[in-house]
Amino acid sequence: MKKSHIFIIVIIAVAVAIIVSSTNEASTYVTFSEAYQLASNGNAKSIHVVGELKKDADGKVVGIEPGADKVSFSFIMIDEGGKEQQVFYNEPMPQDFTRSEKVVVIGSYKGESFFAEKILLKCPSKYQENSINAGI
After folding, report:
1. Is residue 40 part of a domain?
2. Has residue 11 been placed in a domain?
3. Domain of 83?
4. CA nearest 107: which of 41, 12, 53, 27?
């Protein structure tokens, strides 16, 4: 074999290895129940859970509590399966947190508690069309 053929085979092998290793890190959205089950089975990887903040009858967010260090906080989130879970986050509250439509927490269970490492927000879009009734 020529050296150029060996070089091309090595490059292809490295590319395949990179693709395979990156697919192992891909994560899907799960509910809190599924995340708890994964953690109970020894999965220590970060898990993505999507849901909404808990709101009262007036639509105001409830369940947000500051941490003892006055920087961290906890909040109650309802996943897509309807389960409520208190989530602990050791960073300051993200801007527009209480205005978000959906929340994605990336983290893991430690015992019975879910600890988020990252929070991703889907805020209401200012580009959504608003329908106006003219009453005509």
Report:
1. yes
2. no
3. 28-122
4. 27
**Which two three-digit tokens encode residue 100?**
């978000």
| CA nearest to 38, candidates 22, 50, 27 | 27
Q: How many domains does the chain have?
A: 1
Q: What pLDDT digit, counting tens, does each position of 41-65 carry?
A: 888 788 999 999 999 999 899 999 9
H/E stretch holding 110: strand 102-110
pLDDT in tens, 75-134: 999 999 999 999 999 999 998 898 888 999 999 998 889 999 999 998 776 555 555 555
Backbone angles phi, psi at 105, to 5 degrees: -105, 135
**Distance spanning both ends of the chain, measured CA to CA:** 82
Both structure tokens of 133: 């009734």
Asked, for residue 90, whether it belongs to a domain, the answer is yes
Pair of tokens at residue 24: 């192992």
